[in-house]
Amino acid sequence: MNYASAAHEHFRHWAATLLEHQRAASGHPWSHEDHDDEVFQYSTISALLDGVYDGDVTIADILRHGDFGLGTFNHLDGEMVILDGVCYRLRSNGTATRAAPTDRTPFAAVTRFHSDFEIAIQTRTQQAEVTGAIDRRIKSPNLIYAIRITGRFAELHTRTVMEQQRPYPPLTQATEGQAQTRFSDETGVLVGFRTPRFQQGISVAGYHLHFLNDDRSEGGHVLDFILDHGDVSVSGASELHLSLPTSGAFLRAQLAGDHLDEQIGKAEGANEESPEE
């Protein structure tokens, strides 16, 4: 077995172990017909860390699996927000536009959003207090939760990576030149996931959120926020469908590094924390 095949087989075993963990945590057998409780994910965060920025999957392909999610685009050319079945590209100049169905992605996660519970935020609330309120309501920290936060933000700090050129640098280097934006008194929506600690490397453990403003013209990857008032809606998922690339740089990537927490923390932003499990 050559290196590429061995790496691919090793990662398939890792993914199977994770899926079995989630099945046991959910307490019920797999149902391949009920996709409301499924997160579909293409590729992994650890592949992005290693500079795998090109994928063969189109936005049209991704939208067949859900109407809510996030990700990025080939060459890291913008952050992705999928909201109400529409995919938006958030570029480093701060603009947001609809993505084309033929655009391609090296990483995306999507689900069919259904609200399991809601939390009304009526006073000015820090990010840590909002996520803490969610943590107190979820069924288990071992499941996946899609998070939608809609309202007026007193302050919002975002970043957006810039398009990369080959040879691609690792993600920790690519994010060093990221464009940052600070919004004040802005209405919009945060879209993302709360992912279990044991999924670190496959996904981003903890909260991973992207912002899109009300008129769908601006947004970015969320570093920090203060919510003036709004509504939090949470959609739980007990199934993960992980689709791995079968060609290209993914097969040669180093996917099981020794410092994933440190690397992901640096790439995602210092203010983002993984939940304590």
List the helices and strands and how they pair.
Blueprint: H1 3-26, E1 38-42, H2 45-49, E2 57-58, H3 59-63, E3 68-72, E4 79-83, E5 86-90, E6 96-98, E7 104-105, E8 108-111, E9 117-121, E10 125-126, H4 127-137, E11 144-160, H5 171-174, E12 179-195, E13 206-213, E14 219-237, E15 239-243, H6 260-268
Parallel strand pairs: 1-15
Antiparallel strand pairs: 1-8, 2-7, 3-4, 3-8, 4-5, 5-6, 9-14, 10-14, 11-12, 11-14, 12-13, 13-14
What does this structure look like?
- By secondary structure, this protein is an alpha+beta fold.
- It has one domain: 60s Ribosomal Protein L30, Chain: A (2-Layer Sandwich), CATH 3.30.1330.
- It is built from six helices and 15 strands.
- The N and C termini lie far apart (37 Å).
- The N terminus and C terminus are likely disordered.
Query: For the report, how would you describe the main beta sheet?
Result: 7 strands, mixed
Counting DSSP H or I runs of 4 or more residues, the number of helices is 6
Given the helix and strand composition, which structural class is it? Answer: alpha+beta
Number of strands: 15
Short descriptors:
alpha+beta; 60s Ribosomal Protein L30, Chain: A; 21% helix; disordered N terminus; disordered C terminus; 6 helices; six-stranded antiparallel β-sheet; single chain; 277 residues
